[in-house]
Amino acid sequence: MLQRAKQPKPPFTLFQRPGGTIWSVRFSAGGKQIRKSLETDNYDEAHHRAYQIWSEANYRVKNGLTATVRPFHEVAEEFIKLVETESERGDRSEYQPRDWPPVIHRYLVGFFGDKPIDAIREPDIERYIEWRRTYWTTGPGKDILYIRYERGGKILRRSARHEVPSVSRQRGELVIVRALFQQALKWGYMGKIEIPDIKVRKRTDNRRPSFTPEEFALLITTSLERIHPAPSGRKILSRDGRVWLQHRQNQHVLSDRIKLHAYIEIGAGTGMRPTEMKNLNWGNIVGFRATRDAPVRDRDVRFQVQGKGKHGTLVPLPSVISWVHTLWDKFIDEVGREPNDDDPVFADREGKRIQSFKKGFAELLNACGLKQDYRGASRTTYSLRHYYISEMIASGADVYDVARNTRTSIAVIDKHYGQVDVERLKDKLKPEHTRF
Predict the structure, then answer these.
(1) Minimal CA–CA distance to 69: which of 81, 84, 59?
(2) DSSP states along 83-132
(3) What is the mean pLDDT of residues 6-24?
(4) Are 276 and 370 in contact (CB under 8 A)?
């Protein structure tokens, strides 16, 4: 007589909540109890699904993973909390809890979303990298006009840039990607995957343009001519056909052009960044008040500058001092008093800080045909900083000293700033012992 084999006890328990008809499963795996709805009221189907869930959980535990699958967005939020906690106790840089969450939320969560983190493979990372490159051009961000962000407890916004991120930007964001997935590996949420690097294609020459000495001389000459036009005056043609010569300039225009010229001379004589010049107050020009009436040879001043997250003290060229005097006198003439230490050096007629010389500088560049350099790259006020650094190097100044005085590194100078014509270095490139 055949006997029915005794069925082994299932490694899980099926149950229904009081008053409900949907089956759920409960079991232990990896030292934790797992509860999960089976989303069916059919017992046989529930039994079948329970075996699948139990088997998958045990497979994950045996392979060093957590028993349950974690969606990417949950792991991302857990990682952000970890970054904030570690930053508070000094284990991470203070900028990471500020700069990393927006990248994680917008790009990583935007791409991976609810995908189980242990289901992400290297091809998925490759697809993410390409998706990120085109996010603002043809992807989800192409129709976004503004980016909102929080600073100092206030919600601000800035215009979105619809462009492909630079290689350095992409590599910087991959640091965040690697950190997140490495932490997920430590938590046992996934196996190890390799995060590919950004492949660098042949780079174009994207240095900001400078000026040659001849071009800078033309810039200065044109600027002075606009301040002091020819005695014959300027021909004015009215709409009704009348013609006359204008011998006297509008005083507001004249004042703006004088300040622009001073801005150019000071920028080219100090190497300050545009933001540093904008932030410059009279109290930052150390020694100017004390030596204002002294002979030129005794006017030894220093500039205390801050901007772009950097600060320091610089030594200006002597030619700068006379233009500082010009701005001092213009302030007194327009505002009716001497500047205080907290007044801006570059001030409008009401003594308020001038935010930018971009428009006036562009008009001057157009007037002397210097809007673009030989590569077709457009010049900006930043070109004055490049001119200062290039001229200092060409004149034989030590590049280390130049780097310290301009608050940058030798590597950055070599890569972006030192645009010195080889022809100007011909004597240095032909040592004495090689000459006939």
Answers:
(1) 59
(2) HHHHHHTTSS-TTHHHHHHHHIIIIIHHHHTTSBGGG--HHHHHHHHHHH
(3) 80
(4) no
Give dist(CA 170, CA 158) in Å, integer.
20
Q: What number of CA atoms fall less than 13 Å from residue 165's CA on the CB side? A: 22
Residue 268 has pLDDT above 90, yes or no: yes
User: Helix (H, G, I), strand (E, B), or coil: what is residue 366?
Assistant: helix
The mean predicted confidence, pLDDT, of the chain is 84
Q: Which residues make Cβ contacts (< 8 Å) with residue 256, sequence separation at least 6?
A: 360
CA angle 15, 17, 23 (to 5 degrees): 45
Burial of 5 (0-12, 13-18, 19+ CB in 10 A): exposed
CA torsion sign for 65, 125, 180, 192 is positive
- C-alpha 45/C-alpha 39 separation (Å) is 10
The DSSP result for 282-294, as a single string, is: GGGEETHHHHTTS
CATH class in words for 213-425: mainly alpha
Q: What global pTM score does this model have?
A: 0.53
pLDDT tens-digit readout, 359-406: 999 999 999 999 988 878 889 999 999 999 989 988 888 888 999 999
User: pLDDT tens digits for 85-102?
Assistant: 999 999 988 889 999 999
Measuring CA to CA, which residue among 246, 243, 244, 339 is closest to residue 289? 339
Q: Scan for tokens 């002597």, then name that residue.
A: 318
